[in-house]
Amino acid sequence: MVGRTSTLHRRAGSPVVAATGVAAAFSTALVFEALTDRDWAIGGWEWPETITLALLVSLGTIWALSPMVSRSRGPYPSSSWAPGDMSEHVRAPHARGAPHGRATGRALARKVVPGSIRSRVNDYRNARVDAAWSKPRDLGDLRRTTPLSTWGHSRGGSIPRVYISEFIEEHAADIRGRALEIASDRYIAEYGRAVTRTDILDLNPENPDATFVANFGDAPDVPDNTFDCVVITQVLSWIYDPWAGFRTAHRILAPGGVMLATTPGTHRIAPIEKEFLGQWFHYTSMSAKRAAENVFGVGYVDVQAYGNVLTAAGTLFGLGLNDLTAGEIAVHDPDFEVVIGIRAVKQAH
Question: Which of 46, 176, 232, 252 would you label with 110, given CA atoms 20 to 30 Å apart?
Answer without folding.
Answer: 46
